[in-house]
Amino acid sequence: MLDEISNELKTLFSVTLKQAMDSFQDYLQDNNITPTQMNMMTHLYYLGSCEITRMSGLMETNKSAVSQLVDRMVNQNLLERNEVPGDRRSRELHLTDRGRSLVEGGLKARQEWFESVCARQPEETQKEVYQALCLFNRIFSSDSSSK
């Protein structure tokens, strides 16, 4: 039985990841945003403000490449770049309202495919999926909390 469960999980993860990423990629193209820009904005969305030096570490690239990307994103009204109080050489990055909205839209775009598939199913199937997902979450949540 473990082989069957494993195969179904592989299929589930493969299909949902592909569809979610396709939806996300469409969202990026529709909004003229590169994956690298979205990566930076997502870091800022979860971290809050961040200095350029730290961002270069998070993005695993050099500071000059991050600075060039930041320049473009400031011009697109996606980010703000401000001096760090007490250190004129350092710059701190913040999302603009537009940048925050784009990140939130990107998160939503990843989920919309799954929601639309579920919405097309009969109510009884939706209930079965819900119950299976609740069980799945309970099993895997309890396993991760025991470590």
TrEMBL record:
Transmembrane segments: none annotated. Signal peptide: none annotated. It comes from the Bacteria. One of its GO terms (molecular function) is DNA-binding transcription factor activity. Residues 1-141 form the HTH marR-type domain. InterPro entries: HTH_MarR-typ, MarR/SlyA-like, WH-like_DNA-bd_sf, WH_DNA-bd_sf. GO terms for biological process: response to stress. PANTHER family: MARR FAMILY REGULATORY PROTEIN (PTHR33164:SF99), TRANSCRIPTIONAL REGULATOR, MARR FAMILY (PTHR33164). This is HTH marR-type domain-containing protein.
